[in-house]
Write a structure and sequence with these properties.
With about 200 residues, this protein is of the alpha+beta class. The protein starts with a helix and ends in a 14-residue tail after the last strand.
């Protein structure tokens, strides 16, 4: 858990507005992170996790395709909270697979026993015990994960697949610093992404 450091960070960003559409480099992950506002989707109802997954993969920065963000450490999570000025529930790139009974990143890597996580104890228990999984589709057994910024504890939490949130975090795994003046862009209309093509 982030503890006192997260509390201090929340005080610093309490009066700051979220930073949208400005990729910021993180030295630890060697990638850029960007907060995207999906308010305009679905008659201003926002995006499901699966929708955010597809939209993230349509984005491009410095020639690198985006993906929903991985948060591998407390330091990375604190970096995101402070620099992107998160204040609303926000999708990121982790999910619980009801068939495999394990957490995974969108890159396909499973969570290991020592993997970093910042779970909200109640919602993690509900998901892990299968109450969320009872509502899952056999075609997509993924229970998505989000940053529960609306809660006082500001932890990770599992959510049902049809739930919609306005914001999501995109990561561009560039492997190092690129042109800091470059802007992220969406793929041309009709471009196929890995999220849209089940054969990839």
């Amino acid at each position: 858990f982030l503890g006192m450091t997260a509390f201090l960070a929340s005080v610093v960003i309490a009066n700051a507005k979220p930073l949208f559409d400005k990729p910021i480099y993180n030295e630890e992950t060697k990638s850029y992170f960007e907060l995207v506002d999906g308010t305009h989707f679905n008659n201003r109802q926002g995006l499901s996790w699966r929708g955010a997954l597809a939209e993230a993969e349509k984005r491009n920065f410095n020639g690198v395709q985006g993906r929903l963000a991985k948060i591998p450490s407390a330091q990375t999570e604190l970096f995101l909270r402070v620099n992107l000025r998160l204040e609303h529930n926000t999708w990121f790139g982790a999910y619980y697979d009801c068939g495999a009974k394990n957490m995974f990143w969108v890159t396909g890597e499973p969570f290991q026993r020592n993997s970093y996580a910042n779970w909200h104890p109640v919602t993690w228990f509900r998901g892990h015990e299968g109450s969320f999984c009872a509502t899952s589709s056999s075609q997509d057994p993924r229970m998505p994960t989000y940053l529960a910024m609306a809660d006082d504890d500001k932890n990770w939490a599992l959510q049902l697949p049809f739930k919609r949130y306005y914001h999501y975090i995109v990561e561009y795994p560039t492997g190092g610093r690129g042109n800091s003046g470059a802007k992220a862009s969406a793929a041309p209309a009709g471009a196929q992404t890995a999220a849209q093509n089940p054969n990839q």
